[in-house]
Amino acid sequence: MAASLRALPVGLLLVQSAVLSFPLGQNRAEVATCGYKSCHATVPNMLNVHLVPHTHDDVGWLKTVDQYYYGDRNDIQHAGVQYILDSVVDQLLKNPDRRFIYVETAFFYRWWKQQSSSMQQTVKQLVSEGRLEFVNGGWCMSDEATTHYSAVIDQMTMGLKFLNETFGPCGRPRVAWHIDPFGHAREHASMFAQMGYDGFFFGRLDYQDRGHRMKNKDQELLWRASDSLTPPLADLFTGILPNGYNPPAGFCWDQLCDDPPIRDDPDLEDYNVDDVVERFLSVAHSQALVYKTNHIIMTMGSDFQYENANLWYKNLDKLIHYVNAQQANGSKVNVLYSTPSCYLQELHRANLTWALKTDDFFPYADNAHNFWTGYFTSRPALKRYERLSNSRLQICNQLEVLNGPASRKGPFGEGDSQTMRKAMAVAQHHDAVSGTEKQHVANDYARRLANGWEHCRVLVSNSLAALSGTSAKRLYCDNLNISVCPFTESTKKFAVNVYNPLAQPVTWPVRLPVNGTAYSVTDAKGKPLDCQVVPVSQATRELRQNRGYAVSELVFQVEAPPLGYSTYSVSLLQNGPPSAATQHRAPLAIQNKYLQVTFDPETGLLSSFSNLETRQTVELTQNFYWYNASDGYNAHSNQPSGAYIFRPNSSTPFVISWIAKTETIKTPVVQEVRQWFSPWVSQVVRLYADSKALELEWTVGPLPIDDGLGKEVITRLDTSIKSSGIFYTDSNGREVLQRGKDFRPTWDLKQTEPIAGNYYPVNSRAYIKDESDQLTVVTDRSQGGGSIQNGSLEIMLHRRLLYDDVRGVGEPLNETSNEYPEGLVVRGKLLLSLNPPESAADTHRPLAQQVVLQPLLTFTDGDLQSDTRLEFSGLQAVLPPAVHLLTVSQWDRDLVLLRLEHQFQSWESKMHSQPVTVNLQKLFSTMEVLGFSETNLSANQWKDEMTRLDWRPQTDDVPLLKPLGDPSIWEVTLKPMEIRTFLLRVSHR
Ligand SMILES: *[C@@H]1O[C@H](CO)[C@@H](O)[C@H](O)[C@H]1NC(C)=O
Ligand SMILES: *[C@@H]1O[C@H](CO)[C@@H](O)[C@H](O)[C@H]1NC(C)=O
Ligand SMILES: [Zn+2]
Hints:
The protein is an alpha+beta fold.
């Protein structure tokens, strides 16, 4: 097909001829020898050793991303990425055989901007000859346990877009490369497959798992990463690297290493070529024993290596020369400069079948008592801030599209979405949202997100001004969660604009700090709304300290249209303290029309949970406990709990209190029971009138450490559900995986840590179920969780530790701040729903999306101008419940990036696990879609040009289904769990 036709499929026939010249495609007539064609030849009847020179450059860890780039603060860690790239390019030019791979686009982009055009030309040449190859290529190497798929797709897209725009097809990485993340999520593999990667390599997996795989030569395998997408859509060839990501012992020639150089002048002292060659052959032969083909890979590099690349390359040149020289003496080993994709190509040529894997690589233990399951929860405040920032970024992106790029400049000044996009991309790094960085680096990530939001706020204000027709000053209240908003506290009359980023309408509770007794709230049509004034809780007063003084909160429920907003007017009617009375007796029950919970009158704890619609009831007790973190002085091992590792000293947690002091508030809008457990743990059990989920708003901290004990605080739900040792957790917020107690699907587990070894990442939800009941917990951030007893589900909320866990960060996880010198206090929500298992997803799927993409509230003072547009939807119609609008974002001046997602798994819902069709032409209300072109998931390759290497599993009983064709060119069909990505050409109406 001709390029212009492919760029605009048949759809162009429907649109004006101006669109014909729409240059989505590009001229592919380039003569380039990058990619598989640029690989060095191998020798068929020999053992081929692929040497892969590489550097692992953390996008922040012990130093901030900028400190790493410049090589600042070398007193903390000697590392400077700018010098690495300078030096490597220089060394590549010295010998065309040499190869290098580069991974983290956040760094490469910084370096590229600073190069002269002649240097840029030189680098382009190296890339087009395959001598410098991009691998992975996202903005960072994301964490896999604590990231949400939406943010991962965004950060990959940003890095890959830069590479494509800068280098064209030769800049498109073929291989995904996650050599350092601490365990591997199935959803990441699924995303990589859909981004068009041919294979995936990583370094870390459970030590028992590795042992079995070495024995069975299963360190290379085929990962079937979705139970819903038709194979091979989510199939990803996966290779486990032999030595983490380090060189074999004795062969590290970086300036950071101490191994002996190759001394090859026989006239000088200490000639060691024979010794080096002999040691190398021995390492190669033993490595070959645990892999299947006559090709093996060696990662020649490590953290921030190649700053003086001459050291590495000079010795590698010699190594290759002297080892291959032995072939003349009958050696059957051939060493070559290579890259992961060249190695992958040889594995593919071997045409073998590979073990099929359908679960994931969590949890990761590097030894019997060292489970890396603490970081699932580490830095809970940063984890929440990152998730909230994602919601803000998506809103910023959407409003930039709905009102067009003009929103960047307007009555409120100049704003942009790019700053926030970069801040979010950096935050996905495996030492960022994971919580495994030093404190000053964590502060830097948070600062970047805050700065990104400042840029977005201007854009959002400009766009809302244009869409609503009012340039009234727009205020933001970022601290509503602790009941602080000076504006609502002191203003008699104001309007609240509620923007909903979802493709379905949302009902959302609004709580505003106020000081009056009575208010009137009217909706966009002028209709009065039920609203209620309730007192601010003691826990909230203590938490906010002197940041705010509101005595009450005004509570009402709003409804916002899809991809749009609705405006509510609030007026003070009467000054004075709140009208809703608080009862101090223990409550018996609270309820709305859907749900009821009862409390034990003796203890004040929850005792049962009912769904009134389905007439289901389960016993439910919930309480708070803490594990005593191991301090490292222990009979079995000296491993302490730390930022990475969770290691309780005992499997029995301490209860914080068996009794909660309670306070009850019952109003027509909200019913809540405020529970107080201790000076550092409290909770509100809350039911809004229209909610199908029970809210548990927990407040934990500052964790006391004056007893010298590190603490890992959990909440545990103990129910009558017969869960038989099985529970379920989501993978990066998308597909749900089954977990078995003391069980791993692919080997016989020898369990050595009964609690930590049963913890899994919970990114957005976890559930337990039996034949009749499913209790689902939706979380507002990533957390660790487990089901240790039948019927029980525990979620770790906060951790404060006194020792470093010896994995490099070099600090105990002991978070304090200027505002909270006694230790961080963290507040968050769990949303509980109870449903029959066969329809539970109908509730928890939309619920989780509402938490991930929560509405944005903005405020304007006084009366609105009469011509203000009070309600707006960017969609022509609500999308079907199965469809999630994953991305609406400005791509460049002319194009819009759109991702539509089917948000149900194939087995999950009778009602929604069906193909569903969306018409692109009838999608948006503010713009017309003139043409579109489909791409891979990361939008760096046209869909119809995607060809991936094919791999055969050892056993394959999954029938290949015929793909459904789209009924008409504008209609896009989504099958369960499918994401489809489009670039749209639009014109604003
Ligand atoms: C890749 O980049 C080129 C410019 O180098 C551009 O013309 C093309 O549209 C991009 N491809 C995709 C899929 O975005
Ligand atoms: C790969 O192996 C299969 C089955 O053994 C065989 O049918 C096929 O022709 C082989 N492909 C190549 C390219 O050698
Ligand atoms: Zn790393």
